[in-house]
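On clarity, I found the account of how folds are encoded harder to follow than it need be. What matters is that the chain and its backbone geometry are given together, residue for residue. The format is easy to grasp once an entry is in front of the reader. For illustration, here is how one protein appears when written out as sequence plus structure tokens.
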Amino acid sequence: CDLLKATRACEQNLQWAELTYLYRHNDEHDNAALTMIGHSARAWEHTAFKEVLAKVNNVELCYKGVQFYLEEHPTLVCDLLKAVVDKVDHSRVVALVRKLHHLPLVRPYLLSVQETNTQAVNEALHELYVDEEDFDALRKSVDTHSAFDALALAKTCEAHGLLELRRVAAYLYARNKRYEEAMELSKRDRLYKDAMRTARESEQQELAEQLLRYFVEIESPECFAACLYTCYELIRPDVALELAWRNKYLDYAMPYLVQYLREADAKLDTVHKHCFPPKKKTQEGDDDDDKSAFDTSGGFGLGQTLQIEYNTGVGAAPVGMMPPGMMPGGGGMAGAVPGMMPPGGAAPFG
């Protein structure tokens, strides 16, 4: 009861510093914060305000305290945000700071909470990086954190006058599968190496061959050869050979053609071995082959009787056969009687 009377007396006497002390002593942190904000000239003290704001029950007082610091103590706002970092919504803080046009003042705070991968925080930092032309930090940020509007950032960087920021724009287009836009931006800035990488990452044959024809149009044989090397798996050999032959770039295309022929030959050799595997010779198979050489069951071979006939005329007897009417044993004609003369009157032998 005495504390309540003292509080009312301090309020009536406009003793704001004393009133703040009484609120803190009585654990009325919300009232203490409001008193320091409303009467900062006499009641505010930085360390005390941080302690009070970290203990308030009404979270809205935290945002009110941030706004109060941005208006009256902007150099201390990051220190205040560290004290209430676990209580505030980072997106709402960024919106509040952006509204008051004090975004650069809270850069340390944004860096400390970027690990939460909040879209508002990421985009606020990207905006700062673009304004400061810090392309290295921007590239690292887009690689590390994914929560941001990549196409909007790409369009912003595309219109920038710094070449490295336009490279970041092409990188963002390619990462979001806008390969054609990325290639056109790289060709416009004569970043041909980036254009080749984009064509290779796209895995689109049409884009790779389109880039190859572009190098022919600008009469750059060195880039022609480099494109054949970088996009080797995407460019058809007939297209490469035709462009090289028609534009006298055969010397620049020869490494590509040699490599292609070597790989084609290796693939054909693999297919041939798969389709026509070598026969495995076994001992049993060798014995069968030896026996077949002496097989007399058919055809010519050892032990087979040759049936050769003498064709001496009509009715000729085969070799080994007796003529008709002849007796075996060396005798004369069959049916001849001893003592009888043969036809023709010839006398028989004595």
Summary: Residues 250-275 form the longest helix (26 residues).
